[in-house]
Design goal:
- The strands form 3 sheets. Strands 8, 9, 10, 11, 12, 13, 14, 15, 16 and 17 form a 10-stranded mixed beta sheet that branches. A 5-stranded antiparallel beta sheet has the order 4-3-2-1-5, with no helix packed on it.
- The protein has helices at about 70-85, 120-135, 150-155, 175, 210-220, 225-235, 280-295, 310-320, and strands spanning about 10-20, 25-35, 40-45, 50-55, 55-60, 90-95, 95-100, 140-145, 160, 165-170, 195, 200-205, 240-245, 250-260, 265-270, 300-305, 320-330.
- The chain contains 8 helices and 17 strands.
- It has 3 domains: about 5-60, SH3 type barrels, CATH 2.30.30.100; about 90-165, no CATH class; about 170-330, Gcn5-related N-acetyltransferase (GNAT) (Aminopeptidase, 3-Layer(aba) Sandwich).
- It starts with 9 loop residues before the first strand and ends with a strand.
- The longest helix has 15 residues, at about 280-295.
- β1 and β2 form a beta hairpin.
- It is α+β, with helices and mostly antiparallel strands and about 325 residues long.
- This is GNAT family N-acetyltransferase.
Length: about 325
């Protein structure tokens, strides 16, 4: 059975939920053990907290920790993500990337410390501060975890703050396209770049964004300067997804293929408030997944703030899991 030292770890619980013809019926639950008493145990599952009386527990045990991705896998994915969201102004510190885009999004206006900066860590951070000061912007650094833990420690010592944690999530495209309720593609996008579900409007994939699509992006990201248009369009292989009904744009999304053709990057998946809870976001994702698979990509990735619980829950249902996380660090004023 479990002990107090198991609190905080992932466990699997088999519990008795009934009796049929004199035989017990079992149900399994997987989650983090958050409380253990003499009478009950509580676990945090993907569906919420579950409180189980100890008398109903048939078997419970700890689950081995999930294997973390290698440093090279984190670097590969971070570089594919950078390629999918290209800042118009760029610099380098050895392998590290410096990016500027008139302040439009943290990803495009922060340093990416992957690889060797070709100088001691304190000197590298000094150089970042000078570079961003020269561009009239507050210095920011994206720290992929756990890869950039030493960088984070140096920034902590300098009083840098952190924005909310971002999850970098991935899924094999075969998983996205194996769902029995997916949009029907018949081997790929339909003629004219449209994918249609029998019960809903078409998901249209275009090589350029419409003005309505851009308006949605501007509303979500707070304006749309020229640098933003560069970020959105300066990728060789990309598609812009749109769902219209009665002339009204209901949902959008953006897909890119980068990382030597392996990675489909998903971004700006958005559904208007009046059209939510109709499965449109999932259909946009799957339409882009079909296009990405046709382009030769094998996996999809996206970036979502951990606090955006609605989006995280949707992506979990689609099969996404967290590959790694990052923090956007911001230098103190002055």
């Amino acid at each position: 059975m479990l002990r107090q030292q198991d609190v905080g770890h992932r466990i699997v619980v088999r519990r008795i939920v009934g009796i049929r013809e004199g035989r017990p019926l079992f149900s399994d639950a997987l989650g983090e053990l958050v409380e253990l008493s003499e009478t009950h145990l509580t676990i945090a599952t993907a569906q919420g907290r579950l409180r189980v009386p100890v008398a109903e527990v048939h078997r419970a045990k700890r689950v081995p920790p999930t294997r973390r991705p290698t440093a090279s896998a984190v670097v590969e994915l971070e570089l594919a993500a950078d390629e999918a969201w290209p800042a118009p102004v760029r610099g380098r510190l050895g392998d590290w990337l410096l990016r500027s885009a008139d302040g439009w999004t943290g990803r495009a206006n922060s340093a990416l410390p992957v690889g060797d900066p070709d100088r001691p860590l304190p000197a590298a951070v000094d150089a970042i501060e000078r570079w961003y000061a020269g561009h009239g912007q507050p210095p920011m650094v994206n720290t992929p975890l756990p890869l950039a833990v030493p960088v984070g420690a140096e920034l902590d010592a300098r009083g840098w703050t952190a924005r909310p944690l971002t999850l970098v999530q991935t899924v094999p495209l075969t998983t996205l396209l194996s769902d029995p309720h997916r949009v029907s593609h018949e081997g790929g996008p339909a003629p004219g770049g449209a994918d249609r579900d029998a019960d809903g409007p078409a998901v249209v994939l275009d090589v350029a964004p419409s003005e309505e699509w851009l308006a949605v992006a501007a509303g979500r990201k707070g304006g749309l300067p020229d640098s933003a248009r560069h970020i959105l369009t300066a990728v060789a292989r990309l598609r812009f997804a749109q769902v219209y009904a009665d002339g009204t744009l209901l949902a959008t999304g953006r897909g890119t293929v980068t990382g030597q053709g392996r990675w489909l990057g998903l971004s700006l998946i958005e559904v208007t408030p009046s059209a939510r809870r109709q499965g449109l976001a999932a259909r946009v994702v799957r339409a882009l997944a079909a296009w990405g698979a046709a382009e030769g990509a094998t996996h999809a990735f996206l970036q979502v703030e951990q606090r955006n619980t609605g989006a995280v829950a949707l992506y979990r249902k689609l099969g996404f899991t967290t590959h790694h996380t990052y923090l956007t660090r911001v230098a103190p004023p002055g």
